[in-house]
Amino acid sequence: MNEQTYEAFYQAHVETHNVLGCSENEVSVLERMHGVRLPEDYRRFLVLMGREADIRHLIGSHYLFPQLNDLQQWGKELLAGRQMQELPENSFVIMMHQGYQFYFLWNGGVYYFLEGETEFERRFDSFTEWFCCYTFPE
Question: Where is the Knr4/Smi1-like domain (predicted)?
């Protein structure tokens, strides 16, 4: 999968759903604020539809730009007091569902944490792979 994945999703939804992206500047400010360099595929998602995207399989989840600052804190809070490591340095939480599970970017992949577990699990090798799993489920 590549950039065309986002373009295809965007084109399929732009006329029937509310889809709104972020500016490049907003993404750059977000990176500086959190001290990370986001992967290009995730940056592309944010620019095309990071502010508003109707992704049916993400109903009940927080994943859009207006929530990203809060997600970083919520991820840390979910881990606090548990006997496990903190979020890795240079990681970035991209989605939280119902306050008990989240996905984050780190070290070239997408990792998962579920409340009650003691370790992070690498689930996807890229944001694009994660996105396709949630947008085009089999």
Answer: 21-133
Beta-carbon-side half-sphere exposure of residue 108 (alpha carbons within 13 Å): 1
| Alpha-carbon span 122 to 112, nearest angstrom | 6
DSSP letters of 20-62? B---HHHHHHHHHHHT----HHHHHHHHHHSSB---GGGTTEE
Question: Please, what are the domains in the chain?
Answer: 3-135 (3.40.1580.10)
Q: What does the pLDDT look like over 11-34, one tens digit per residue? A: 665 555 677 899 999 999 999 999
